[in-house]
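User: Please run a holo structure prediction.
Assistant: Happy to. Please share the sequence and the ligand.
User: Here you go; the ligand is phosphoenolpyruvate.
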Amino acid sequence: MHREDTTMVVVMRPGASDGDVHKVVKAISEVGGEAFVSRGKHQTIIGLVGDISQFAELPLHAFPGVEDVIRVSKPYKLVSNESQPHPSTVWVGDVPIGRDTLTLIAGPCAVESEEQTVAACRMAREAGATILRGGAYKPRTSPYAFQGLGEAGLDILHTVARDLAMPFVTEVVTPADVETVAAKADMLQIGARNMQNFQLLKEVGMAGKPVLLKRGLTATIDEWIMAGEYIAHTGNLQIVLCERGIRTYEPSTRNTLDVSAVPVAQSLTHLPIIVDPSHSGGKRDLVLPLTRAAIAVGADGLIIDMHPRPEVALCDGPQALVREDLLQLRETIARFAEVSGRELAHPTSDRRTATWSRPVSA
Ligand code: PEP
Ligand code: MN
């Protein structure tokens, strides 16, 4: 099994005896770890370095005289930028998502019919998208809402995407559907509501396709990255994180776009990070301003909802862009991409150009 070094600090209570300290040090060395005792005037702390799997079983909190046990190193390893110091590029078909490019993913929120999907995907292409999106299996808050067309929807999107010669991403909501979806989709999406569905994360990871992992509605950045670690642990490192707004007390937007999450996550993980301005704001008029914010803050891409007739959309009509928005979106993205020193991501057979080219700190 692969060794994962970790650093922890055991803080002893002010009145802890030498015997209490000794018991902790002995327990740590018995499992093969190293302990470093630092005695202050009133309190003693014990630094601990070793393999996490050794300490996981030690109930250090329960030892006499122990006040607190603090983990210093991050719990994620494979997706951490300590293990991989260059930002990674994930390929969806022949399209890169990474630090040098700006990738636009667009399409309908849900696949409703062939006609609607063709129209929405053509709009996406016209806006400059190089990857399509569309939900066939929809995770809806209400059981009475449209649940998606399921496999029939997947087939429609697959046909439309192949006709347009574009790769596509689609959500999978249950482990039982992973094989079916992975057989056709170029990238599998884990939705916000399933971010901590660990069985689904493992199944999707094992499918071997690139994964788009949305941030949970109330997930901290560490929890989100840990969900990515679950996928990475299956051996699949083709993971893209997606900030899609979080639940706050503010009711005027559907969710609050956490723009800070982009640079914060980029400082912790080598995985690419994209932003979903559609599900963040939940309103058409907010999509362009939030797109500008996302690019300005350093997002590696965007995923945007569009619909030919939002007034009759079966899902998320209020946030869908319409034809009249496309030109402005295209121009906004091109202008902001240039300002942020990125190239719009296009399909390329030369995978070296966008891979591992810039250190994380740059
Ligand atoms: C979606 O992208 O269609 C979707 C349901 O998004 P989220 O999981 O972020 O709510
Ligand atoms: Mn939606």
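Residues 109, 135, 139, 191-193, 214, 244, 276, 279 surround phosphoenolpyruvate (ligand 1) (CB under 6 Å).
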